[in-house]
Amino acid sequence: MPPRGRSLRVTVGRDGHPFPRHTPFRYRWKKVLDGGLHRFWSAFRPSHSAYRAALRRLDIRLVEIPIRRLPEPFRGYTIAYLSDLHVGSFLRSEDLVAVARRVSALRPDLIALGGDFINYFEDELDELVPALRHLEARDGLVAVPGNHEYYAEDPRRLLKRLADLGPVVLLNDAIAIRREGTALWILGVDDGERGNFDLDAALRPVENGDPRILLSHQPDALPLAAERGIDLVLSGHTHGGQFRFPWIGPIVHHTKHGYVGGLYRHGESTLYVGRGIGAAVVPFRLNCPPEVPLIRLVPG
User: How far is CA 190 from CA 18, 160, 227, 298, in A?
Assistant: First the structure.
């Protein structure tokens, strides 16, 4: 079982990652404008009720994914994947506790948190603390940051606090889950837009021949992950588009390669993009309910 509250190890490096990079100026103004809007919604009580209605449609779905070289002791291994919580503006701690209880009732082997825990402000993490106490899995919790963690005044302080609350925060690092002399590797990378994304650093501890699962907030990591022999990538970031219009689909999805939601293949690698739990900018979703996929690994 991976240790809980493990200290952070940050590897700074770049390996030709495929993500868009935004200027510091753009990020500052985005925080001022969007952050102000989120503060407005936070003070506007009907917004909480509006998103609570969306959360009642939470889609908890079982997704079976074949994995090459999967050792027999890991047949049926389950990972509950929670991403894009965006706590603070629309979701309150009691909403997240209800979600956490539903997830823990599934009795997953591992819970993976896929980033964007906050919207723009460090104090929003306070809303997540009660829910973390109700998340339980046999092999604990692992987490990676998203781009919204980098809107915080001190992102490293925020991630250190998250690690102190229990999850193993993987920043270009990996841990092994071991069963009966076999191993399943869980890798995590820093955010591709604002962090120090370094997949090669995350791969260094991995033993040859063992299956490997990558947590990357940004789904556009798939082509690079396929080059590096990753079996499965779990991502979020897109919210599934958040607004999916009939005959048109999502207008905004924040992915260069069209990885909006669900299953994708690239070479020998599989990607699952979760729609996430929270919302950004406005407290609504259209034809795109929040989602917690329960990933079940089967031999491929």
Answer: 13, 14, 18, 27
User: In the block, which residue shows the tokens 């490997």?
Assistant: 212
Flag whether pLDDT at 3 surpasses 50: no
Strand pairing partners for 112?
Answer: 81, 142
Residue 257 pLDDT: 79
The whole-angstrom separation of Cα 131 and Cα 51 is: 17
266's tokens: 């690239």
Q: What are phi and psi of 252, to 5 degrees?
A: -120, 130
Q: What amino acid occupies position 95? A: D
Number of C-beta neighbours around residue 9 at 10 A? 11
Could you report the per-residue pLDDT of 15-73, keeping only the tens digit for each? 444 665 555 555 565 655 665 666 666 655 555 666 777 788 899 999 999 999 999 99
Q: Is 188 helix (H, G, I), strand (E, B) or coil?
A: strand
Q: Note the pTM of the prediction, 2 decimals.
A: 0.87
Quick one: 39 exposed, middle or buried, by C-beta within 10 A (0-12, 13-18, 19+)? Answer: middle
Torsion (CA) 112, 116, 118, 119 in degrees, nearest 10: -160
The answer to whether 81 and 112 are in contact (CB under 8 A) is yes
> What does the DSSP assignment read for 235-252?
E-SSGGGSBEETTTEES-
**How far is 9 from 290, CA to CA, in rounded Å?**
32
Give, for 59, the enclosing helix (H) or strand (E). Answer: strand 59-67
Structural domains of the chain in order of their starting residue, each with its CATH number: 24-299 (3.60.21.10)
Tell me how far the alpha carbon of residue 112 is from its chain's centroid: 7
Angle between helical axes of 93-105 and 45-55 (0-180°, round to 10): 10
